[in-house]
Amino acid sequence: MMAFRKDFLWGGAVAAHQLEGGWQEGGKGISVADVMTAGTRDVPRRVTDGVLEGENYPNHEAIDFYHHYKGDIELFGEMGFKAFRTSIAWTRIFPNGDEEEPNEEGLKYYDDMFDECRKHGIEPVITLSHFEMPWGIVKKYNGFADKRVIDLFVKFARVCFERYKGKVKYWMTFNEINNQTSWNSAHHLIQDSGILVKEGDNMEQLMYQAAINELVASARAVKAAHEIDPDMMVGCMIAFCPIYPYSCKPADIMKTYNAMNTRYWFGDVHCTGVVPTMIRKLWERDGIQIDLSEEEQKDLLEGTVDYVGFSYYMSFATKDQKEDPAYDYHEWEDLVANDHVAASEWGWQIDPTGLRYALNWQWDRWHKPMMIVENGFGAVDVVEEDGSINDDYRIDYLRNHIAAMKEAVDYEGVDLLGYTMWAPIDIVSASTGEMKKRYGFIYVDKDNDGNGTLERSRKKSFGWYKHVIETNGEEL
Questions:
Q1: 98-119 pLDDT per residue, tens
Q2: Residue 221 backbone class (left: φ over 0; alpha: ψ -120 to 50; beta: rest)
Q3: Residue 342 — very low, low, confident or very high, per pLDDT cuts 50/70/90?
Q4: Calpha distance 54→110 (Å, rounded)
Q5: How crowded is residue 258: how many other Cβ atoms within 10 Å of its Cβ?
Q6: End-to-end Cα separation, the chain, in angstroms
Q7: Are 82 and 9 in contact (CB under 8 A)?
Q8: Using an 8 Å Cβ cutoff, are 59 and 34 in contact?
């Protein structure tokens, strides 16, 4: 039995700020990513107040895809990619985020890049907002804390839909939209929503209001896309980490049930247009006042997505530790170790079966076609004396996860559109700003300090993935 559809979208995924570079070229403005310093696994990245002299901002050059995109896309074509997921840097189109007219040079750059993809038979899969909010919007409006930013985002989306009609069919609105309320951190609020947290701010209030504002912005963008081109498919993008109960103790089961609902209610709104009652009750318990007008609720109902895009890297586990009858889940407090799975060097749990579970959970709940738009293994790669890079650990990780998604299609019949692994070429890590945490099939000669030739070379996994695509996933 053939698991995957004949037009299955095999490919790879990146974000503009992690590979493009050219941070001041073509009229581009400063984004949130441009003011994030380098970090490590143990030292978090910092957000500076603008670009400061003497700081290391790894996204400024990244891997210089801005000037290398033709050669890189040619390598993707050599592997047989059917799809390439990337994002449009908002600051290339509206440098400060609120200009009256878009920047033509930025628009043309993406015209040329999408044309290059098409030349190699590659379908662009495009995210509108992938941790790249204009710094001008952060400073002027405090990001999505301000409802005026909804209109700014929808204007940006409309410009993109109109310009790339006929070139881009598959879109997503906000990358990993649920991370901000999952982790309750100032880092995620600035990265995801452009919000600078000040002393005395109610972070939970800020998080949930920003989430609602982004969901409204997403719904209005979906409606705009369907007006401009009914053939466009616009999806959401969820960071999906299944949460398991620590034990079969009833309280652990209830804790886990609420954890899944708390983490993934964004998908409920994207797919059904309704905020779940459970979330409204949580707001009530925590004294959170949400501004959501009748008009905005109507937009949510009318702007549901066409498919669900999601990332999958790992699973989590939780247990009831507080004997709270509400079983409220706070991710930053309630995660526990799962001794049944291994972990990567960066502490990410390796759980292929979790991907099968994730596919089934979403299919049963939302009944929308799905696309796995991130899944990969970050590791330190060693270049041998002969120049080869034998990344069998990456092949093993991807092989096992693709086998699990194949089982979900074969045995449970989930509707899967494609798989764009993260990331086909080495890029700057979003979480740490490192280069040594590598995901790609293509090695880029650059180190954490920015040294290197930027020369590209094929790893062992390059040929392996090419064969996977050639056989439509039948030979792993």
A1: 999 999 999 999 999 999 999 9
A2: alpha
A3: confident
A4: 31
A5: 21
A6: 15
A7: yes
A8: yes
Token digits for 305? 């997505």
Strand 9-13 relative to strand 416-422, pairing: parallel
Share of the chain above pLDDT 90, in %: 87
* Residue whose pair of structure tokens reads 């070139």 in the numeric block: 167
Chain mean position to CA 178: 10
Joined together, the tokens standing for residue 135 give 């710094």
Q: How far apart are CA 102 and CA 112, in angstroms?
A: 17
Q: Computed over its alpha carbons, how large is the radius of gyration of the chain?
A: 21
Cβ-in-10-Å burial (0-12, 13-18, 19+) of 456 comes to middle
**Residue with token string 């209001």:** 209
Give the pLDDT mean for 28-47. 92
Domain 9-470 -> CATH class: alpha beta
CA separation for the pair 271, 340 (Å, rounded): 33
Q: How do beta strands 243-245 and 307-311 pair?
A: unpaired
Question: Rounded CA gap, 257 and 400, in Å?
Answer: 27
Instruction: Tell me the average pLDDT across 439-468.
Output: 97
Tokens 């790893």 correspond to 459
Q: Could you count the other beta carbons within 10 Å of the beta carbon of residue 116?
A: 20
pLDDT band at 390 (very low <50, low <70, confident <90, very high): very high
Measured CA to CA, the distance from residue 258 to residue 267 in angstroms comes to: 15
Domain residue ranges in the chain? 9-470
Distance in angstroms (rounded) separating the CA atoms of residues 355 and 403: 10
- Could you list the active site residues? 176, 374
Are 397 and 351 contacting, i.e. CB atoms less than 8 angstroms apart? no
Give the pair of three-digit tokens for residue 158.
Answer: 């409309």
> pLDDT confidence of 181, banded at 50, 70, 90?
low
Task: Tell whether the model's pLDDT for residue 18 goes beyond 90.
Answer: yes
Q: Which residues contact 115 (CB under 8 A, 6 or more apart)?
A: 167
- Give 98's contacts (C-beta < 8 A, 6+ positions apart): 134, 136, 137, 140, 152
Report the C-alpha gap between 162 and 129 in whole angstroms: 17
pLDDT score of 325:
87
pLDDT tens for each residue of 139-169: 999 999 999 999 999 999 999 999 999 999 9
Q: What is the DSSP string of 102-154?
A: --HHHHHHHHHHHHHHHHTT-EEEEEEESS--BHHHHHHH-GGGSTHHHHHHH
